[in-house]
Specification:
The protein is mostly helical and about 270 residues long. It has helices at about 5-10, 25-40, 50-70, 85-110, 130-145, 150-155, 170-200, 205-215, 225-245, 245-265.
Length: about 270
């Protein structure tokens, strides 16, 4: 594949204007599901180069996730060992970001030889789709609030345990900054690197291939959260393929994470 071909394969998916008589729910389904599948599958390519690229991406994913699993641990037993909660979480976030970003970027730039923007990092035209991310947050908000009353949720969040009498600054705020950057790296890795990297060979199915390892990241969390992660992976993967961008998906992920932490802190009586 030359650069013009890969650019065509990875540009945002645009559909024809909907009929004026089409109901709104059918228009949403067609725009963000049916057309995405049709266009992604239509852009699939076959051949040794496509097979090689897909294989290299999947091997890189496996290596990155292995490094993350063994090096990035919030319990202080990873690459950076420490008894300090702050050091443990900071090390986890930094190592996670590095393992998600560095191997993928090196493969894209020096082996696949493709622009990074083709892997979900474009900004152009993304704003037109912002409304659907706002709608998704509005749907997720009551679910998070209800789930926050469960013992499993309150035992898990927030990851940074604010001790009695401890100020939110600097520990919690620094942690939040790194935590949110980790979500950007995560979205790039799964909805950018995997989805856009595999789409030229697998088409629409690249979304579901990505959903499997993404769901496995949630093992150990409350089961409802792990099940919701499957839906989230498919939805955000589809939107990334549609828009050619991971940025609004990262923003949605961060907004939900903020809500989860604030709900947990509220139940602990730490906000008011």
């Amino acid at each position: 594949m030359d650069e013009s071909t890969t650019a065509t394969l990875t540009r945002p998916l645009e559909a024809p204007a909907p009929p004026t008589t089409e109901p709104w729910y059918q228009r949403i389904w067609r725009t963000y599901v049916s057309d995405v599948r049709r266009d992604a599958d239509a852009r699939m390519v076959m051949g040794a180069r496509a097979d090689r690229d897909a294989a290299l991406i999947l091997v890189t994913v496996a290596v990155s996730l292995t490094l993350s699993e063994y090096w990035a641990r919030r319990d202080g037993t990873g690459l950076v060992a420490s008894d300090s909660q702050f050091v443990q979480l900071t090390a986890w976030a930094i190592v996670t970001i590095a393992t998600y970003v560095i191997p993928a970027v090196l493969l894209i730039r020096f082996v696949l030889r493709r622009p990074l923007r083709e892997f979900g990092l474009r900004f152009t035209g993304v704003g037109a789709h912002a409304w659907i991310y706002v709608m998704l947050f509005a749907i997720a908000l009551p679910v998070v609030v209800i789930a926050s009353y469960g013992d499993a949720f309150q035992a898990k969040y927030p990851f940074y345990e604010v001790l009695p009498g401890e100020s939110f600054w600097p520990g919690l705020w620094v942690w939040w900054g790194l935590y949110w950057l980790q979500f950007v790296a995560l979205e790039f890795f799964f909805r950018g690197f995997m989805v856009h990297g595999l789409a030229p060979r697998l088409g629409w199915v690249s979304i579901f291939v990505m959903a499997v390892p993404y769901n496995m990241l949630h093992f150990g969390k409350p089961m409802p959260e792990a099940l919701v992660a499957i839906v989230g992976a498919i939805v955000l993967g589809t939107l990334s393929l549609k828009t050619g961008s991971i940025w609004l998906g990262a923003s949605l992920h961060i907004a939900i994470a903020i809500t989860m932490d604030l709900c947990a802190l509220l139940h602990e009586g730490r906000l008011f």
